[in-house]
Design brief:
Blueprint: H1 3-10, H2 23-28, E1 39-41, H3 49-57, E2 67-72, H4 79-84, E3 91-95, E4 124-129, H5 133-145, E5 150-153, H6 156-166
Length: 167
C-alpha cells in the first residue's frame, strides 16, 4: 500500500523501488533489474522463497550490495543459509520484543478473537550484510551504538549467547 516507501522517504531514502512483481523474473533479466544501493525485504516465509533469496543475494551477480532481511529466527540454522553465507559474515539485529505484523485487509477470515489477527507464527529478526567486510564492520559499530529495543549479534554463535543470556 506504499507505506514502506513513505517510511523510507521520511528517513531520507528518496530512491525506493517497491513494486508488486515476480522477483524471480526480474532477477533473471538484466534490463529489468532495478538500480539500488541497499536491498531491504521481508520475504514470504513459505516454500523455498527464503532459500532462493539467499542464493540470489549471496551470488556474484548480486555484487557487493548491502542487505537487510527481516526473516524468522530459525533461518540462521538452515543448511542453505549456512552454505550461502559461508564466504561472508552477516550480523543480526534482534528485537527485544516480538514484532507484530498487520496482514493486508481481508487476508484472514474473521475470528471472534483478535489475538491471532496481528502476528506471525515466527519470531523474526534482521539479517544484515554490509556488502563488503569493511562496510559490514561500520554497520556493526553503528548498530552497537544504539538501536532502541534491539540486541546486536556479530555471528551465529553470538545469537546463541543472546538466547542463553535471556534465560
Amino acid at each position: 500500500n506504499g507505506t514502506v516507501v513513505q517510511h523510507l522517504n521520511e528517513l531520507g531514502f528518496r530512491n525506493v523501488y517497491n513494486q508488486k512483481e515476480d522477483c524471480y523474473q526480474v532477477w533473471k533479466s538484466k534490463s529489468r533489474y532495478p538500480q539500488f544501493d541497499i536491498f531491504v525485504t521481508n520475504p514470504p516465509y513459505s516454500g523455498d522463497h527464503i532459500e532462493k533469496l539467499m542464493q540470489h543475494i549471496t551470488s556474484s551477480s548480486f555484487g557487493q550490495r548491502p542487505w537487510f532481511l527481516l526473516m524468522p529466527q530459525w533461518v540462521h540454522r538452515k543448511d542453505y543459509y549456512i552454505s550461502c553465507t559461508s564466504h561472508i559474515r552477516p550480523f543480526y539485529i534482534v528485537p527485544r520484543k516480538r514484532y507484530v505484523y498487520l496482514p493486508p485487509p481481508a487476508f484472514r477470515k474473521a475470528k471472534k478473537s483478535d489475538v491471532h489477527k496481528k502476528s506471525s507464527p515466527f519470531v523474526s529478526m534482521w539479517y544484515v550484510w554490509g556488502g563488503t567486510a569493511q562496510q559490514n564492520d561500520k554497520l556493526i559499530q553503528m548498530a552497537y551504538r544504539g538501536i532502541p529495543n534491539c540486541d546486536v549479534a556479530r555471528s551465529r554463535s553470538a545469537l546463541r549467547d543472546l538466547r542463553r543470556k535471556k534465560r
